[in-house]
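Give me the fold.
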Amino acid sequence: MTQKSTTYPQLRNLQKVLFKQNIPFVSYRLPLEIEIITLVQHHSLPEKLDSLNELDNKVGFVIAPFTSSEEHSSYFLKPDCVFFSDGIDDIYIQKLADNNRFIEHAKTENTLTTTKPAEFIANVNNAVEVMKADKLHKVVLSKVRLEQLPDGFEPEAFFLKLCSNYPHAMVYSLQLPGVGCWIGATPEPLLVVEDETVKTVSLAGTQIAVNKPLESYQWADKELEEQEIVTDFVEKTLQSLGITDYSKAGPMNYQAANLIHLKTAFEFAETAIQNRLGDFLNGLHPTPSVGGLPKTEAIEFILANENHDRSYYTGFLGSLNINEKTDIFVNLRCLQLFEKQFVLYSGAGITASSVAKNEWTETENKMLTMMNVMKNQ
């Protein structure tokens, strides 16, 4: 299933100017929706957040890293203008083209190199040994791949192709000083608030989609165990926040782009997190689907063993109170743009029964979400 192709000439012109002038913005398209929403902050810089508790009642867009550090902070974009799909005025685009106030903010420099198979496999085997010693229940290990941008690459065209190819994902393109340029098509909602209801999910397990009914995909014990770990974590997090009146459905098969996952869905009343959005996000992030369990020990293992900086990969990002909705997603199936290169990120959940070579294959499959579209540029 692909979404009907739309050219959006004004949106493309707007994004082209925003990228050139280094102006903070985000364009995003929510799952199974057609409308593309673009937020532009052209009068000031996005706010660097000291705490996620500062997000309560804000209107705009947030992005947070996998782990906060001196190099990577959470940022909040407070839009000066909000546009819907192609409803953008030529005069406004020209004014932005003349706006040089953000030019002096340096573009992010790439310091990453491609993860070698031997390095990733060694990390997986190390993690399995640690889990067999009962020091970890699960850990998610990631890798990166550095590629040259195709000749004539246009990020605005790439973004629209992702929207067309992946209707079930939250597709986004953003540029923020201090964060850089990122484009992604992520399948995993962290928090959705709509009609006074909060929704979140546990997502784990991965296999390649083939031409057969969604319900016919079967799962090995490793994937079922991984899904149960994530689901238990979400339930315990809800209960630790005093949220006990929730509904739970699943696990069920769920397709995102070229992949099939296992998903369990949770819902509860919005009043349960009123003025506690930061507490909820801090409790969930990073979930075991991107970090591991126990949470602290898994993060320590990742930081000690991965040779690359995840930056905003496996962080989260999304809109707050736009169109009376809040939609925050885990930053998966994404790439980071540089002047002549791009970096792909992917990861796999490791348990005691993991086979290293299989996990490498899974990470390769996940990178295809971006690469399949990039090859057709």
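Confidence is low (pLDDT under 50) at residues 1-5.
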